[in-house]
Design a protein that fits this description.
The complex is a heterodimer of chains A (107) and B (116). Chain A is mostly beta strands. Chain A has no helices and 11 strands. In chain B, the strands form 2 sheets. In chain B, strands 2, 4, 5, 6, 9, 10 and 11 form a 7-stranded mixed sheet that branches. In chain B, strands 1-3-8-7 form a 4-stranded antiparallel sheet, with no helix packed on it. Classes of the chains: A mainly beta (107), B mainly beta (116).
């Protein structure tokens, strides 16, 4: 059974810092991995989708990498802003989600 | 292009009642999945429908059921509500075709169900 873990559970950084969120999974036979953000009480917003054949995807200040062999993905956020404050979730294969990382960016 | 819509947005029910939630996917998306999100268990997969057929199912009791219509709109039903069913129910749609072909999923805003 696929287990997805996200570390850290919470992160607080000052505005402007670059940061990395981690996602690990136990079964490397995944089809893709998707990163989402969720604002309090809201639905999920898709950030990046990485297909199993890809190593990374970029969108603006976001870069996500995927290493299937080690069962890891990272989400890199450059020059963080207060508007980035949210919970970030990763989902693998058959949409098994990690518990998320709650990010707070302080002005 | 309109996003995924869910109705109602908020719902309050009492124990023992039943509830039906509705989800309209993005136009052209034939796959609709449902999730339950609670503070304790996080996001958990309920089931997925594709072309009016349930193709995948999570580990939830039979009180949770769903269906999909020919226009891809989907409903989920929870019978004999329990306090523990209080949660945010999210649906997502995608252009996923094959069972193992998970394309990008787009989520609706969710229905907040409170069971008293």
């Amino acid at each position: 059974k696929q287990e997805v873990t996200q570390i850290p559970a919470a992160l607080s950084v000052p505005e402007g810092e670059n940061l990395v969120l981690n996602c690990s999974f136990t079964d490397s036979a995944i089809y893709n991995l998707q990163w989402f953000r969720q604002d309090p009480g809201k639905g999920l917003t898709s950030l990046l989708l990485i297909q199993s054949s890809q190593r990374e995807q970029t969108s603006g200040r976001l870069n996500a990498s995927l290493d299937k062999s080690s069962g890891r993905s990272t989400l890199y956020i450059a020059a963080s802003q207060p508007g980035d404050s949210a919970t970030y979730l990763c989902a693998v294969g058959d949409m098994r989600f990690g518990a998320g990382t709650r990010l707070t960016v302080k002005p | 292009k309109a996003g995924v819509t869910q109705t109602p947005r908020y719902l309050i029910k009492t124990r023992g009642q039943q509830v039906t939630l509705s989800c309209s996917p993005i136009s052209g998306h034939r796959s609709v999945s449902w999730y339950q999100q609670t503070p304790g268990q996080g996001l958990q997969f309920l089931f997925e429908y594709f072309s009016e057929t349930q193709r995948n199912k999570g580990n939830f009791p039979g009180r949770f059921s769903g269906r999909q219509f020919s226009n891809s709109r989907s409903e989920m039903n929870v019978s004999t509500l329990e306090l523990g069913d209080s949660a945010l129910y999210l649906c997502a749609s995608s252009t996923k075709l094959g069972l193992a072909d998970y394309n990008e999923q787009f989520f609706g805003p969710g229905t907040r169900l409170t069971v008293l």
